[in-house]
Structure formats: structure tokens, C-alpha cells
Write a structure and sequence with these properties.
about 140 residues, 6 helices, single chain, about 45% helix, 2 strands, mainly alpha, Transferase(Phosphotransferase), domain 1
């Protein structure tokens, strides 16, 4: 769920971009974002991806079952694109058309991602939606 929707009930096409980024990172890591909230991990999925990215160890984020059967450049690019999609500010996220270009062409230069959005851990997901009136932009 995008931060702008979780915090303010605002929804836009960039909210879908955020969700797509989470999905990409879940596929690459082999972990669901919710797995982090149901365990004793200190980080959420986005923080875990960011930590590996900034420590220049993005392949440590990779699903262990994929090791040895992947293109290093493609995995790095998918993580990079995933991180661009989960930027806290919606205007910093690429459009879906741009994402399609990024995934299909190495000639498209990727900007450097900033630290992604993060959330306070809660064991009760219903608390996020209490009192929100959804607005579609």
C-alpha cells in the first residue's frame, strides 16, 4: 500500500506504481512484504532491499532458490527499478510506461533511487485504515 494512501487516503496511478515496485521486490527476494511483519526481522522488505542496495550487495537480497540461474545485470536492474517505484514521494516514482521501457531496454538510463518509504510496524493491519476517507486523484 502506498504511503500516501496509507497515511492520507489519497490514491493515484503512482499508488499502483508503488504496489508494482513492492511486487517486483517480492519476486526478486522470494519473500512477501507481510513476511517481515509476521516475523522478528528488524527491517521491512523495502528497508531490507535498500540496505543491500546501499551496501553494494544487492544480490544478497535475491531469493536463494534463484542463485546460479539468473543474469546478474537483470537482477540488479529489477532491484533498481523496484526501488525507484517505492519512492516515498509519488512524483519521484516513474510512470508505468517508463517502467516498461526500463524493463525492455538497457539504453534507458536509470536514476539513482533515494531511500524508500518506510512504515511503522503494526501487527494489526486494520489500524492503517481506521478513519481514512479514500480520495482518488
Amino acid at each position: 500500500m502506498s504511503p500516501e494512501y496509507a497515511m492520507h487516503g489519497h490514491f493515484s496511478v503512482k499508488s499502483d506504481v508503488f504496489s508494482f515496485g513492492v511486487l517486483v521486490l517480492e519476486i526478486v527476494s522470494g519473500k512477501k512484504n507481510t513476511d517481515f511483519y509476521q516475523s522478528n526481522h528488524a527491517d521491512d522488505l523495502l528497508s531490507h532491499a535498500w540496505k543491500n542496495w546501499t551496501e553494494k550487495t544487492p544480490l544478497e537480497f535475491l531469493d536463494p532458490t534463484l542463485r546460479g540461474s539468473y543474469s546478474r545485470n537483470e537482477v540488479n536492474r529489477c532491484i533498481h527499478i523496484g526501488l525507484l517505484c517505492v519512492q516515498e514521494n509519488p512524483s519521484d516514482r516513474p510512470s508505468m510506461a517508463t517502467i516498461a521501457l526500463m524493463l525492455n531496454s538497457y539504453s534507458v538510463t536509470l536514476s539513482m533511487p533515494r531511500q524508500p518509504a518506510s512504515f511503522l510496524r503494526t501487527r494489526n493491519p486494520n489500524r492503517l485504515n481506521q478513519g481514512l476517507d479514500a480520495k482518488i486523484n
